[in-house]
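Dear all,

This email documents one entry for the complex benchmark we are building for the journal club exercise. For each entry we list the sequence lines for every component of the assembly. Then comes the predicted three-dimensional structure of the complex as a token string, followed by one or two observations. Please use this as the template for your own entries, and keep the labels exactly as they appear.
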Amino acid sequence: MNYSNTIKTSFISIPENESLARVICASFISQLDPTIEELTDVKTAVSEAVTNSIVHGYSSKGNGMIFMDCTIENECFTVEIKDNGKGIEDIEKAMEPMYTSCPEAERSGMGFTVMETFMDSVKVNSVVGVGTKVTMKKVIKSKLL
Amino acid sequence: MKLTFSSEKNATVMKICGEIDHRYAIQIRNEADKKIVTYPDKKFVIDLSEVSFMDSSGIGVIIGRYKLIKSFGGEIAISGVNSAVGKILEMSGIKKIIPLFDTVEDAVNN
């Protein structure tokens, strides 16, 4: 198989668009014939990254844009979620399990841990005052069977 | 997301239907806390059998209710763990602090 496909989307940073982002990714990867578990993994990881942009990147003000680009290269699905928000000062700290900068909002501090557990790779680039980009990859194994 | 409450023996059962994400977490938290504060002596059962999706916002909600109920000296249980929520519950470690049951009946009676 030698196949590639790409979509580029953008939406405003409001909680209503978390489910939209999940549905877009789920629809996009359906062409790879994923298992239910693979589909759930991708939806969960995407939900975490988009929520981070809304809650942390744009401080829940709903006034920013989130850019979500999805690519399929053969069996590999890549999603890049980018915001132009406040950025992350200490990425290593932010990615520690149970760490949250919003304990009062009952954030579990597990967003990045979920992304790392449910996807094959997670890369975070962030510049304070400029924004954050999360790139996640997952091989959809069911197609390989 | 739809939230319903029922009273079963000496327990309050909160059934969540649909998706649990950041958007709905605040609503669930506020509704649950009203019941917990009103009936602090009752066991609180969270029924997840009709949940179709849950991310770490749901983990935050469950751990938050666990802390509140424990502050009253009460009990909490989870029922109806399905494939949509099993993996994230497993990785969160919630199973170590909150008992999980197949059915609401089991959660209420045990």
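Observations: Chain B touches chain A at residues 19, 21-23, 25, 29, 53-57, 59-61, 63-64, 83-84, 87-88, 91-92 (CB under 8 Å). Chain B has a mean pLDDT of 95.
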